[in-house]
Every structure is written in structure tokens, then in C-alpha cells.
Amino acid sequence: MTRNIIIQDDDQIIKECLSGNTELYKNLVDKYQIRIINTCYKYTKNIVDAEDVAQEVFLKAFQNLSSFKFDSKFYSWIYRIAVNTSLNYINSKEKRNEKETISEESCLNIQTISNDNPGEYYQLNELINKIQPLMDKLPDDLSKLIELYEIKDFSYEDISKNLGIPIGTVRSRLHRARNMLISEFKSMKNDE
Amino acid sequence: MMNNNYKIFGLITSLLRNDNPPKISKNFSEDVMTKISSNKISSDTNYNNYLNIAASVFFAVITAYSLISYDRLETNIVSVDLLQDTIDNNNGLIRRVIDDSDCDYDKKNNEENNESCK
């Protein structure tokens, strides 16, 4: 089952996007949407605005993909775009607020936003407690790799030096760890 | 190739990092891709418009250049005619002067027979 799961490296996806296969950009959006929306949410304090800003962030990143330098991680690059776009959004909102006075109409708009359809959203807080057990099911060496690469943002080289294993092995073990996590998640959702 | 694994893996890592908002809309990535493709279409349309304008300017320049060149050619033809007229007129004058001297003319050709040169 795990053999069918293919998670390409970000660099590979970006290179394919740049060579014309732009549909693959969706994989990057899927992978980082939650973290980017959360970054924007920290600034906007409103999930609807955060998603609007995050959309702009992914659009800007796509338009400037050719300027991405492969010496850093894609997430670090897009994170900086997210912070700058959020700050711009706050500044422009403050300017708008200076011009506008609070009216009954704007109060009604806020009410409409807060009563949006819950069926259109994934409630993420419900899932938090279910993820850690999936990590616990992984063999120790693989969960350590996931922790170092995906959570602590170590590079392949750093992990290789830290654990004393070749970079190729780091890559292949990470690939296996990702596949196992995704399979475990799918089987958990099937069981529910 | 589109697959759901990136979404799942993104969800797992963001939850492990505690880097997640309370909720996100289910079709966020689809909305982003729609926006990207519509943006791409509009930029393609802009590109086509610029191309049309560039082509129009190019042909306008070519036409203007052709007209100016033709006009110059016309002017040159007229000036050649005028020059020819001048030359003809000059020849006429010259001929007239030569014609006045019957003696010289005949001297070359038929000196012996021309009575006036003797």
C-alpha cells in the first residue's frame, strides 16, 4: 500500500513547475497551506482574512518562483513572503480604518463572517490529539528523522552529520517515514 | 500528478509543530489554483494585446517608410527629367553654336569639298 505513495521533494516540484508543469504547484499549496494560513492568522486574527492573505501569498510565490534560490528551503522563502504580505495587509487595513467610521453595515458584515458554514472548514483542533499516536507507531529511527527534518527544520547534511549516516540513507529513510505516516493516517480515517 | 498525500502530510507536520489555525476551508488549494490559472489567462491576454499593438506599430512604421521611400523615388525621377532637360537645353545651345560654324564642321568631314572654308 505504501509503495503507491509518492511525495516529491519541494525542489523537484519547483523545478518541474519552472519547466512548465505548473499544475504540480498544487502539491506545494496542499503541503504548506495550513502553516501559511496560520502565519497570516497570527497577524490578521481572523481566519477569513488569513485565507485571503494566504491566497495572495501563494500567488506571489508562484509568480516569483523563478527567483527562488535552491540554497534555502521553500518553506523559509514562502514564510518571508507570508510575513511581508500580512504586514502590508495590516497597514492597508489600518489606512482603511482611518478613513472609515464603524457603521451598522460593517457590524453586520462581521456577523456574517463569523456565522460561516462550518461544513466548508476542516476543524483542525479536533485532529491534534490523533496525530502524536501516529508518530509513536513509527520505528524510533524514522520518527527521529521526521522530528529533525520536518519539525526542527534540519537540512539533510545536518541530519547526516548528527546521526552519522550517509545523505542518501537520510533521504530514503525520510521517504519511508513519510509514506508510513500517510498510510497510518489514512487507515485511522478509514477506521473512524 | 495530483494526489491527496501532500495535503495529508502537510496536515500531519503542521499539527506536529503546533503550527495550525483552528480551522481552514476545505477547498483552499483549489481556490488558489483557480486564481493562479485565471491570473495566467489574463496575463496571456495582456501579452496578446501587447503583441497586437507591437505588430500594428511595426506595420505602421514599414508603411510609413515605404511611402517616404516611394516619395523620394518620385522626386528623383522628376529631378532626373529636369536634369535631362537641362542637358538637352545645353546640348541645344552647343549645337546651335556649332551649327553657326559651318566651316569647322565641314572642315572635319569634307574640307576639300566645302567652298566656304577655302
Set out the fold topology.
The complex is a heterodimer of chains A (192) and B (118).
Chain A: H1 10-18, H2 25-44, H3 47-63, H4 74-99, H5 104-114, E1 121-123, H6 128-137, H7 140-151, H8 156-163, H9 167-191
Helix pairs in contact in A: 2-3, 2-4, 3-4, 7-9, 8-9
Chain B: H1 5-16, E1 23-25, H2 28-100, H3 102-110
Characterization of the model:
The complex is a heterodimer of chains A (192) and B (118). Chain A is an all-alpha fold. Chain A folds into 2 domains: 2-100, Orthogonal Bundle (Rna Polymerase Sigma Factor, Chain: A), CATH 1.10.1740; 128-191, Arc Repressor Mutant, subunit A. Chain A contains 9 helices and 1 strand. In chain A, helix 3 crosses helix 4. The longest helix of chain A is centred in the middle third of the chain and has 26 residues, at 74-99. Chain A is globular and about 60 Å long. With 118 residues, chain B is mainly alpha-helical. Chain B has one domain (26-117). Chain B is 80% helix and 3% strand. Chain B has 3 helices and 1 strand, in the order αβαα. Chain B is rod-shaped. The N and C termini of chain B lie far apart (115 Å). Classes of the chains: A mainly alpha (192), B mainly alpha (118).
